[in-house]
Amino acid sequence: MTLFRLKPLLAATAICAALVTPVATYAEDLVIGQTFLASGLDPAEGSNGWAVVSHGIAEQLFQVSRDGEVVPNLAASAVQNADSSWLVELAADRFFSDGTPVTAAAVAEALNRTGAANPSARATAGRMVFSAVDEDTLRVDTEQPTSILPSILAEWAFPVYRLEGEEIIFTGPFAVEAFEPGGSIEMVPNAHYAGAADRPNVTLRRIGDGQSLALAFASGEVDMAFHLPVETLPMLAGIEGEAKSFPVAYQYMMWMNTRAGALADVRVRRAIDLVVNRADLVTAVQAGVPATGAFARSYPFAATEDLPHDPEEAGALLDAAGWQLGEDGMRRRDGVALELVLYAFPQRPDLLTFQPVLRGALAEIGISVRTQVTENPNDVATRGAFDLLLWAQHTAPAGDPGQFLSLFFETGAARNYTGWSNADYDALIAELRAESDPQARIALARDAQEMIAAQAPVSFLVTPEWHVGLSPALAGYEPWGSDYYVIRPDLRVAE
After folding, report:
1. What is this structure's pTM?
2. Where do the Solute-binding protein family domain residues begin and end (predicted)?
């Protein structure tokens, strides 16, 4: 069968001509559609560091391999000194996209700037100070002693870059040619990255919801549709190309705002957590497994016990908290109904699927839930403008539990969206931060998850499976690293 897929930028006249004379080959360009796109290119701001690595624009000193191991990238090695500082040797012959060599001075300037501006860069070992020993050697001094510096430098907050005036220049396999915030990024191969001649130009488009993404793939507008809703897969069965399903190390979760109102009471939070039937959520999205805690089961520090589902105990907790069940099936205290708002966001289609399931489960124990959809979940989370907020997070992108457990749950942490505070938990995380023995770190991470479960500032729901649509131009593409390494140096147009 002759393969014919139109690129989205073709004019109407080109479409008419193509209908007369079908084209049997692809252009040396790829269009990739995703429900998320970098909001900016400065790694010192928010979670931009994650996005620019995912988009193939930036790299770090260390990265996580397809097998989940932390391996050197822009660095060649890292060795700890007797005084707990580290020496990092840079890899040879690595360049920024303008041809400038990657030097220790350039790396130190960038990472010191990020560390000063971005709280996420201080989550695991506190503030880190980078200094150039010579052109190829960095010294790294950490506020909190750590034995896992390579893993920390593989965290999403640490892409390497350099500033040229107001321009930020990266080292990744692709360089930005044009950027439309919230819309698209036009990228070309980085001419100073090995193998550049074999890479295509790439247009990365943000498509706001999963259904529209599936339609764009079905119509041939995109060569890759990353993160398709499971319910669209049957529609794509007859489309040229394929849809691949793959497990990810994300966790779907539900934040509970502990600052005020009913959710300030741990008994109400625990009741909500107990009434959630995670198996029902897996059934709803037709993929994944019930979460056991903060981390996917594949990690050695994951919690090992299934989370309980006990509506009867949930009702008893609400009774004890003074929320009495009325004849209409609703809970009230002092004449006020127990009503909550549950937010989700369309960039993660599965979360929208969860909303009616959770609303029904909470209604069974007398809690009224109104569902809302937001295009700006980071804003809602940061402002604490929610009761319940569904969330998707890669909880161990660098293969270690420390960053997530610190950044999202320590008192006053930058991403402690729930407002939860617990002195015993903070002390445990301080111990985890200082611990170097791998087995002891596993034990501490599991203890931390037990504390979280007991206080329920969050419900961990599902470890998901995702789906990516691939045109024949991307035959052989293998997704890995969840959505952290989507556009990689090995991206090629298939023969």
Report:
1. 0.84
2. 69-413
- In angstroms, the CA 230 to CA 285 distance is 6
* Paired tokens of 25: 């080959």
First-to-last alpha carbon distance for the chain, in angstroms, is 16
Whether the CB-CB separation of 418 and 458 falls below 8 Å is answered with: yes
Domains defined for the chain, CATH in brackets: 12-35+173-248+466-474 (3.40.190.10), 56-165 (3.90.76.10), 250-463 (3.10.105.10)
Q: Tell whether the model's pLDDT for residue 13 goes beyond 80.
A: no
From edge to edge, which strands make up the β-sheet containing 224-226?
174-180, 184-189, 201-206, 29-34, 224-226, 465-470, 242-247
CA distance linking residue 150 with residue 71, whole number of Å: 8
Cα 342 from Cα 390, distance rounded (Å): 7
Rounded Cα–Cα distance for residues 162 and 150 (Å): 21
Structure tokens at 316: 């008893």
pLDDT of residue 28: 66
Q: What is the pLDDT of residues 207-228, one digit of tens each?
A: 988 999 999 999 999 999 999 9
Q: Tell me if 249 sits within 8 A of 394, measured CB to CB.
A: yes
Side chain identity, residue 408: F
Report the pLDDT value the prediction gives residue 214, as an integer from 0 to 100.
Answer: 95
pLDDT attached to residue 73: 97
Q: How far is CA 280 from CA 77, 291, 311, 326, 374, in A?
A: 46, 12, 14, 27, 24
Alpha carbon distance 200, 433 (integer Å)? 42
- CB-CB neighbours of 36 under 10 Å: 19
Q: What is the DSSP string of 340-398?
A: EEEEE-TTSHHHHHHHHHHHHHHHHTT-EEEEEE-S-HHHHHHHT--SEEEEEEES-TT
Nearest C-alpha neighbor of 454 from the set 422, 414, 419: 422
Dump pLDDT digits (tens) for 52-90: 999 999 999 999 998 888 999 999 999 999 999 999 999
Reduce the DSSP state of residue 33 to 3 states and report it: strand
Burial of residue 87 (CB within 10 Å: 0-12, 13-18, 19+) is middle
